[in-house]
Specification:
The chain is α/β, with parallel strands linked by helices. It contains nine helices and 35 strands. β8 and β9 form a beta hairpin.
Length: about 450
């Protein structure tokens, strides 16, 4: 059976107190909308439709970046969840199969839960996702009779007995496309808010003699984000889950609560992550690597046996081969560091390639930017780059070549050559004492006024 996703992302999110649409606020360095879309991918959907409203152009741009094949439709007036889903009808024209309604501000529903919802469609025409709430508060209650969902009762309309029920409505649902839109056409707005509610589909389905059921999931999967406090809570939930998964996969986290992971971080087994490491998007760390304390990694690949940090920064395009060393206060950007090479101290290697077993001395800089363009530096295998070398790109240093300490390299260095480019030192006998005496005298005279 084919599946389509309709993701509701039209809300302004007034309580966020932000110019940014609510669904674009990040959790683990990805918009919460992306989390919802990634969850939906588990169903291998034939179509994905995102319903935008507030700042629709921003939502459309983000959606296209996440999934270029997704359609974005506009809900010009926010007239309720039922009205929002109706805006997807044209984008789903001709589609035959199940529609799963997700929410862009409910990012943690799992693949397993969505698959169970689809499986439940074999025994029911309409499937609602519910959860057992620790504190049901003002959630809508799901009134069950065995596996049959009788109705959804909003808190304000619930009796005392119904308010005692802890099985609550998440808002997510699955239904055959034709049935869903047929029922939505019957939804009215005769209520205090004048809105068209998606939850009305339960009553309408039962009135048509259709079977309705509910699937349960853990409460934290239904966490909705409406405020900055909710956003912080959601990020903490994500981090706790992601850290636990790494530990289960055989990764050592020396102080798990201090390691911050992105939504797509991959770390191989037997790797060790020391305290206070931050992973940005797009990081893969292979098995057996060591990421030392206070390092920041983003958009990079770290191979087996590599050592990074402490206090290192790997920026997008950094590619570390096996058994490389990148040490304290080193920054690597858009550069390949070959197997066994070392960049151990206080260096910047950007737009460069460093050959196998090469040693980069402390304070080395690839001068890659001329103010307009970026240029590459190529360093061969088994080279030795002396401390405080400046490599003015574009430039090449050959295999087994050397640069002397303090050298400014402005032209290519051939294989096996030694480059020396620095001003000749001149010593002035006794000049240091004379200079200091003169300066002290000036200081004393100034103090006397």
């Amino acid at each position: 059976m084919s599946t389509a996703l309709v993701i509701l992302a039209a809300g302004k999110g007034t309580r966020m107190n932000s110019d940014l649409p609510k669904v674009l606020h990040p959790i683990a360095q990805a918009p919460m909308l992306e989390h919802a879309m990634r969850a939906g991918r588990a169903l291998d959907p034939d179509r994905t439709v995102v319903v935008a409203g507030h700042e629709a152009d921003l939502v459309r741009a983000a959606t296209t970046e996440i999934d270029p094949d997704a359609a974005v439709v506009l809900q010009e007036e926010q007239l309720g969840t039922g009205h929002a889903v109706l805006q997807a009808r044209a984008a789903l024209e001709g589609f035959q199969g199940d529609v799963v309604v997700l929410y862009g501000d409910t990012p943690f529903v799992s693949a397993d839960t969505l698959e169970r919802m689809i499986a439940a469609r074999s025994r029911a025409d309409l499937v609602i996702l519910g959860f057992e709430a620790a504190d049901p508060a003002r959630y809508g209650r799901l009134i069950m009779d065995g596996e049959s969902l009788e109705k959804i009762v909003e808190f304000k309309d619930a009796s005392e007995a119904e308010r005692a029920i802890t099985f609550c409505n998440s808002g997510l649902m699955a239904c055959d496309a034709d049935v869903m839109f047929r029922l939505l056409d019957k939804v009215g707005n005769d209520n205090a808010s004048g809105e068209y509610y998606l939850t009305d589909l339960v009553e309408l389905a039962r009135a048509d003699g259709l079977a309705v059921t509910a699937v349960a999931c853990p409460e934290d999967e239904t966490l909705g984000i409406n405020s900055r406090a909710d956003l912080a809570t959601a990020d903490a939930v994500f981090q706790a889950r992601a850290r636990a998964e790494l530990l289960d996969l055989g990764v050592t986290l020396m102080a798990p609560e201090t390691v911050y992971l992105a939504f797509d971080t991959i770390v191989g087994r037997d790797s060790v992550i020391e305290p206070n490491v931050v992973f940005g998007p797009g990081v893969t760390v292979e098995s057996g690597a060591l990421i030392r304390a206070f390092s920041h990694l983003e958009g990079c690949h770290v191979s087996r046996g590599a050592k990074v940090g402490p206090y290192a920064r790997l920026r997008p395009g950094a590619e570390l081969a096996e058994d490389t060393h990148v040490g304290n206060f080193v920054e690597i950007k858009n550069a390949e560091i070959a197997a066994g090479a070392k960049v151990n101290h206080l260096s910047y290697i950007g737009d460069a390639s460093v050959g196998e077993a090469t040693n980069i001395g402390a304070g080395t800089i690839t001068c890659n930017y001329d103010g307009v363009m970026k240029h590459r530096t190529e360093i061969g295998a088994r080279a030795f780059i002396g401390s405080n070398t400046c490599l003015v790109a574009p430039v090449k240093v050959g295999n087994e070549a050397m640069t002397a300490t303090g050298t400014i390299v402005t032209k290519d260095v051939d294989d096996g050559d030694l480059a020396i480019a620095r001003a000749q030192q001149t010593n002035k006998p006794g000049r240091a004492r004379k200079l200091m005496d003169m300066l002290r005298a000036k200081k004393a005279a100034k103090a006397k006024g």
